Amino acid sequence: MKLAVLGTGMIVQEALPVLSGMGIHPHAILGTERRRERTQALAERFGIPHCCFQYSDVLGSGADTVYVALPNALHYDYAREALLHGLHVIVEKPATVSLAQLRELRRLAQERGLILVEAMTLHHLPAFQALRRELGSLGRLRLACLHYSQYSSRYDAFQRGEIAPAFDPAQAGGALMDLNVYNIHCAAALFGRPQGVYYHANIQRGVDTSGVLTLDYGAMQAVCIAAKDCQGANVSFIQGEAGRIECWPSVSQMDGYERTLRSGGRERREGLLAEHRMSYEFVAFEQMIDGVCLEEASHLLDLSEIAAEILETARAQLK
Q: pTM value?
């Protein structure tokens, strides 16, 4: 995998040391003129040979894969351009701001035999994979509460009127798209497509800074709570007629869980996040891309489509 990284924000600054430690050395990085010094510093620090400020230079750099780590509203355009140039695409969450955009990217990837995946750490974490295997022991599922609340480092500035993309409704910012997307992917992977989607949010300056999303699965209800304006314990629960599972911390960084059965059995597993959370997904992405594992990528895109549908329905309720 010859990777080009698009962006220089917080997620890229976190990802680059992880990639370096895995032996994945990016081939190119794209920054803006406003962030020229930062882009050049990252390129120098991580030995990235192509430091670019025009997307056309990235596309012609010899990379075979782009990692789209730009503000949410830019994901579709940059991913589409990469696919049209024959490059595989890893796109940060949320993959797109609409279901139609995701389906169009998926169509382009399928037509060209390219890998398209959403960078959703959850699906690749050992704790989550183990939890999925345990789910059947809970009997008929009845309730789930998934929680990810994190006081944003940008919230104080937002309160002063300084609007970063993560808080800009015009750029698909807000708690739903930034944090609750992890809970939604968890629900999609564990429970599938819901019958109903209902979102109640706290709105400031036109954007949801926190909110509660309810997913109706008929005989089961799932609640997804996320906040950027307050801090939570970030413990989640899944309850069935035969038992329950408690997992921690937020699902995006799941490190362990405890299963308690009504019959009296109890099992606790913790310390399962042995590596940085992003390393697990990039191991999977590298294998998928180097082996062109289209079936595995397609399965992940099925989950991304469910998530995109939920997000779209919930966002419509904000208007």
A: 0.96
